[in-house]
């Protein structure tokens, strides 16, 4: 075995490989397309594997680079990444260090849009129950948009034409670029503090997804949801749908449509008032005519034409009824007297006093008044009271004995 002239340590070998990789113009500024798997955020950094049908490479994206992405990667998402390839010294593994990451095909903005939409929808910010009705006739309409854009000119022109009595208050804001979201939020907050503002239109004219992106940001969506007055979102053209459209109380296809939505046409209102006035006048005339006919019908009645004759007829009827009532009362009283006499006769026949009046008497032992029905109840010397048909007798018993058989009751 021949002894090599130079033997490297592991660290030296890794270092040389690292030097070779970082010195390669392609590997130090490399674009790669692939599919994300094993995505794992940790320590503020992103760790993932980028793969295709045949192989895979380990990737890292440090915290300082994440703000450039704008969405959260997901497993299975196809992406394009830019970075450099190096060797991780601790385990000697080949690592792709990412500086930029873009969704492949859909685009990173579209992915960010879908992720924010799903999150806000899960929070309930799109629920129909949160939507408030728009005022029918707002006196003051607030507008958040660019003061120099065609959108504001269209809104103001249409509102003034449809409803000149409505005042338009503009909160100027940039509607494109990195300064647009905070300026839109500030405009919404400012209009919420203006007295009399009843509805707010927020929006701009059409454009690409990048140009409309300010209305797809979370800060604008939450500002709309916190507004104390209803908000109409009018972003882009009819086919454009933004996050602000979904959060707002109403969506308008265009800024011009928003202006038509928030105010009525004054001339139409005047026509409606005139129609209502005419209908009310007609209704009152019909009602007055019916009341007059009713009054004439009442005036033609006999009681009003000849009240004395009407009262005379009623007087005679009253006298007749009074006579009939008196006769009925007399019949009832006569019947009741006869019945009372009959009941009294029956009661008198059953009365003990009637029995005493026929010669019978009642004997009671004194004191106490106990009825005496047998000779054995008294003894010689007892005092008794004898009740007669008329009066009573106080007697003293000299002797008591059984009735002598065959002796008549009257002593004969």
Write the layout of secondary structure elements.
Elements: H1 10-23, E1 30-42, E2 45-51, E3 56-61, H2 63-66, E4 78-88, E5 93-103, H3 108-123, E6 140-145, H4 150-162, E7 167-172, H5 180-193, E8 197-204, H6 218-226, E9 231-235, H7 243-247, E10 250-251, H8 255-262, H9 266-299, H10 302-305, H11 307-349, H12 352-357, E11 362-365, E12 370-371, E13 383-387, E14 392-396
Parallel strand pairs: 3-5, 6-7, 6-8, 8-9, 9-10
Antiparallel strand pairs: 1-2, 1-4, 2-3, 4-5, 11-12, 11-13, 13-14
Helix pairs in contact: 4-8, 5-6
Provide the descriptors you would attach to this structure in a database record:
OB fold (Dihydrolipoamide Acetyltransferase, E2P); disordered C terminus; five-stranded parallel β-sheet; 412 residues; alpha/beta
Describe it for me?
This protein is α/β, with parallel strands linked by helices and 412 residues long. Helix content is 41%, strand content 22%. Helix 4 packs parallel to helix 8 and helix 5 (180-193) packs parallel to helix 6. It is elongated and about 175 Å long. Residues 407-412 have low confidence and may be disordered.
The chain-level mean pLDDT equals 84
Secondary structural class: alpha/beta
Radius of gyration equals 58 Å
Task: Classify the helix fraction into a percent range.
Answer: 40-55%
The low-confidence runs, each spanning 5 or more residues with pLDDT under 50, are 407-412
* Oligomeric state of shown chains: single chain
CATH architectural type of the domain at 125-264: 3-Layer(aba) Sandwich
**Can you count the helices?**
12
CATH topology annotation of the domain at 125-264: Rossmann fold
The number of strands is: 14
Distance between the termini: 185 Å
């Amino acid at each position: 075995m021949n002894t090599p002239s130079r033997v490297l340590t592991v660290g030296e070998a890794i270092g040389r490989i690292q030097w070779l990789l970082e010195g390669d113009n392609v590997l130090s500024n490399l674009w790669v397309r692939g599919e994300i798997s094993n995505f794992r955020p940790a320590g503020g950094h992103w760790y993932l594997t980028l793969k295709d049908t045949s192989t895979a490479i380990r990737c890292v994206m440090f915290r300082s680079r994440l703000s450039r992405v704008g969405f959260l990667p997901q497993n299975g998402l196809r992406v394009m990444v830019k970075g450099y390839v190096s060797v991780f010294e601790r385990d000697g593994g080949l690592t792709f260090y990412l500086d930029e990451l873009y969704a492949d095909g859909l685009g990173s903005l579209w992915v960010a849009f879908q992720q924010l939409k799903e999150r806000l929808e899960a929070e309930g910010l799109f629920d129909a129950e949160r939507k408030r009705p728009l005022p029918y006739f707002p006196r003051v309409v607030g507008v958040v948009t660019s003061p120099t854009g065609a959108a504001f000119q269209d809104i103001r022109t249409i509102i003034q034409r449809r409803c000149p009595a409505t005042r338009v208050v503009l909160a100027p804001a940039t509607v494109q670029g990195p300064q647009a979201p905070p300026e839109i939020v500030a405009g919404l907050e400012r209009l919420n503090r203006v007295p009399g503002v009843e509805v707010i239109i927020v929006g701009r004219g059409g454009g690409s997804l990048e140009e409309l992106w300010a209305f797809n940001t979370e800060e604008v969506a939450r500002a709309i949801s916190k507004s104390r007055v209803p908000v109409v979102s009018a972003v882009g053209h009819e086919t454009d749908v933004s996050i602000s459209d979904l959060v707002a109380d109403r969506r308008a296809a265009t800024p011009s449509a928003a202006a038509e939505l928030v105010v009525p046409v004054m001339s139409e209102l005047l026509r409606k008032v005139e129609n209502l006035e005419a209908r009310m006048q007609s209704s009152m005339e019909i009602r007055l005519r019916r009341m007059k006919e009713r009054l004439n019908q009442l005036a033609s009645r006999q009681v009003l034409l000849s009240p004395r004759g009407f009262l005379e007829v009623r007087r005679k009827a009253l006298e007749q009824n009074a006579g009939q009532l008196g006769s009925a009362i007399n019949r009832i009283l006569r019947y009741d007297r006869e019945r009372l006499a009959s009941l009294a006769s029956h009661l008198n026949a059953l009365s003990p006093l009637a029995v005493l009046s026929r010669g019978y008497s009642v004997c009671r032992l004194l004191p106490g008044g106990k009825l005496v029905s047998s000779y054995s109840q008294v003894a010689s010397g007892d005092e008794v009271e004898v009740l007669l048909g008329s009066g009573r007798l106080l007697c003293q018993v000299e002797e008591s004995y059984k009735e002598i058989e065959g002796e008549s009751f009257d002593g004969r």
